[in-house]
Specification:
Blueprint (H helix, E strand, L loop, with lengths): L13 E2 L3 E2 L15 H13 L4 E2 L2 E2 L9 H13 L4 E4 L8 H12 L3 E5 L17 E7 L17 E4 L3 E4 L6 E4 L6 H14 L5 H10 L4 E2 L2 E2 L14 H6 L14 H11 L18 H6 L9 H12 L12
Parallel strand pairs: 1-3, 2-4, 5-6, 6-7, 7-8
Antiparallel strand pairs: 9-10, 11-12
Helix pairs in contact: 1-4, 2-3, 7-9
Length: 325
């Protein structure tokens, strides 16, 4: 429902192709009333991925009301102006053909779509979250329990923090907390933006699979078996989702080479870290420790070194992080 451009969070942010389908006024210096929802969602995306480019499209009025025609135009605007990801923090029980076609066109154009599952504590399908080519996100609280309001079902991909999250509100210096699946989805959107900063060639299917494979399933209260009707494939783990794309690539150059292998050997032999920092080869120290565990078994050892060495000098197989899974 708009964006409070004057908020200091957005100062210096890369904001492009703003379009207001409610008033038709695309002047960023004139803010519509009550843009809390859009501002809050955008703030969460930007806080997750500070270097991302934001394309705000206003499709809902100050009361949170829109229609399928306006939504269709908004999706088409995003397609035609080069969006890579669309965050869809809304839901409807009815989907007409033009809007369905717009979502299909977005997917066909390589756009990743992320949608809130809904806040009805129901398994009745809502759109666009229930569509095949949309990543559906539910909500959990700080105790890893599914939020009482969060919609669930077989279509759910994963869950993310959605209770009492903190972000920007309309007004020049307003901040606050809010709860809802609308605010769980932006964490996933921001994580995908971070992934695309490393490699922008991933398809929807590759992104979706990677997010599912890097979730947290060992929760505070116990383990879940996935897929789960309430958790999908688990809780978003943004750290794992991003860092697993850089395993073995310590300088994040996009290449794994002798320099990276040397760093890995130092870490595997504890030569590169102080005594006692990595007890028994565990990687719970820092990002470089995590990058060194290329087979994701929780231990940095000569198996990781051997795999990297074979990849660099023999190159008989594509680099496949977490190959032991």
């Amino acid at each position: 429902n708009g964006l409070a451009f004057e908020h200091p969070l957005f100062e210096g942010a890369n904001i492009v192709f703003y379009h207001d389908y409610i008033t038709g006024n695309n002047n960023q210096n004139i803010n519509p009333p009550n843009t809390d929802h859009g501002t809050f969602v955008t703030g969460l995306i930007l806080l997750t991925a500070p270097e991302c480019t934001i394309m705000p499209i206003r499709a809902f009025d100050e009361n949170g009301i829109s229609d399928q025609f306006t939504l269709t135009k908004s999706i088409n605007w995003a397609i035609n102006h080069g969006a890579d990801i669309i965050n869809l923090s809304f839901g409807t029980s009815i989907l007409d053909e033009p809007l369905m076609e717009a979502f299909e066109d977005a997917h066909d154009n390589g756009i990743i779509m992320v949608a809130a599952s809904g806040n009805d504590s129901s398994n009745v399908p809502l759109y666009p979250a229930s569509l095949d080519h949309v990543i559906a996100v539910g909500s959990v609280n700080a105790h890893d329990s599914v939020s009482v309001f969060s919609n669930y079902g077989a279509h759910l991909d994963l869950v993310s923090p959605g209770e009492s999250v903190y972000s920007a509100l309309s007004g020049e210096y307003e901040w606050g907390t809010w709860s809802g699946t609308s605010f769980a989805a932006p964490f996933v959107t921001g994580t995908i933006a971070l992934m695309q900063e490393l490699n922008d060639s991933y398809s929807h299917e590759e992104i979706s699979d990677h997010l599912r494979n890097t979730t947290t399933t060992n929760l505070i209260w116990g383990n879940i078996t996935t897929p789960d009707l309430y958790y999908g494939y688990g809780i978003l783990n943004a750290f794992e989702a991003v860092v697993q794309l850089t395993l073995g690539d310590f300088d994040v150059s996009g290449q794994r080479n002798i320099k990276d292998l040397s760093t890995m050997i130092d870490i595997a032999t504890n030569a590169g870290v102080p005594d006692g920092v990595v007890p028994q080869g565990r990687y719970d120290y820092n990002i470089k420790m995590r990058q060194a565990d290329v087979n994701c078994d929780g231990i940095i050892d000569m198996q990781d070194v051997s795999y990297m060495s074979d990849y660099i000098f023999i190159h008989v197989m594509p680099f496949s992080p977490c190959f032991n899974r």
